[in-house]
Specification:
Strand content of chain A: over 45%
Largest sheet of chain A: 6 strands, mixed
Oligomer: heterodimer
Shape of chain A: globular
Order of helices and strands of chain B: EEEEEEEEEEE
Number of strands of chain A: 11
Largest sheet of chain B: 7 strands, mixed
Number of helices of chain B: 0
Shape of chain B: globular
Structural class of chain B: mainly beta
Distance between the termini of chain A: 41 Å
Helix content of chain A: under 10%
Order of helices and strands of chain A: EEEEEEEEEEE
């Protein structure tokens, strides 16, 4: 069974203090790893898709990287508006329907 | 561009009452559609998905059912709600690529 584990569960940073969120996965034949941002009371917002080890994607202060066992979401010089829960997911290679298996997320709080 | 709608946004229902949540997608055709539930402080649990009209796959045996009467409409239903059905319900779609795009969600409280 696919497993997606995110750490830490919660992270508090000062504005400008860079850090990384971790997503480790066990899936045979990775077909895609996805990062989402979720604000309180809202649906997740798609950020990145990574398909193969060594791949990197960037968007503003966020950079996602992928190895054969885990993905990192690096946040450079974060601002308070980056506060949110960040979710990662892997595509389920079995069965149909392009299903995703999600981790439980990292709740990020960026303070002034 | 594609947009996804869910309604209602919030709902408070007594135990034993019926439920109907609706999701519609605009700007795409023949999408895969998904229903998730998110409990407080927990990840997303896939409930149902559909690859076409009338085609429903259930992921978790429970008190809920889903239907897809039209290409871009997905409905989540229950005949009798339980307290454990409370949560944040999210609809999502995917098109040609694999990433899923989520709607704004429905907050359901069963009292």
């Amino acid at each position: 069974e696919d497993q997606v584990t995110q750490s830490p569960e919660a992270l508090r940073l000062q504005e400008g203090e860079s850090s990384s969120l971790n997503c480790s996965y066990t899936v045979s034949g990775l077909r895609g790893l996805f990062w989402y941002r979720q604000d309180p009371g809202k649906g997740p917002e798609f950020l990145f898709t990574l398909y193969s080890a060594g791949e990197e994607k960037e968007k503003e202060r966020l950079k996602a990287t992928l190895t054969k066992k885990e993905s990192f979401l690096h946040i450079t010089a974060p601002k308070p508006e980056d506060s949110a829960t960040y979710l990662c997911a892997v595509q389920d290679p079995t069965g149909g329907g392009n299903k995703l298996t999600f981790g439980t997320g990292t709740q990020l709080k960026v303070e002034l | 561009s594609q947009t996804i709608h869910q309604w209602p946004a919030t709902l408070v229902q007594p135990v034993g009452s019926p439920l109907s949540l609706e999701c519609t997608v605009e700007g795409t055709s023949n999408p895969n559609l998904y229903w998730y539930r998110q409990a407080a402080g927990r990840g997303l649990q896939l409930l149902f998905y559909s690859v076409g009209i009338g085609q429903i796959s259930s992921e978790v045996p429970q008190n809920l059912s889903a239907s897809r009467p039209q290409d871009r409409q997905f409905i989540l239903s229950s005949k009798k709600l339980l307290l454990s059905d409370s949560g944040f319900y999210l609809c999502a779609w995917t098109g040609g690529s694999y990433e899923q795009y989520f709607g704004p969600g429905t907050r359901l409280t069963v009292t």
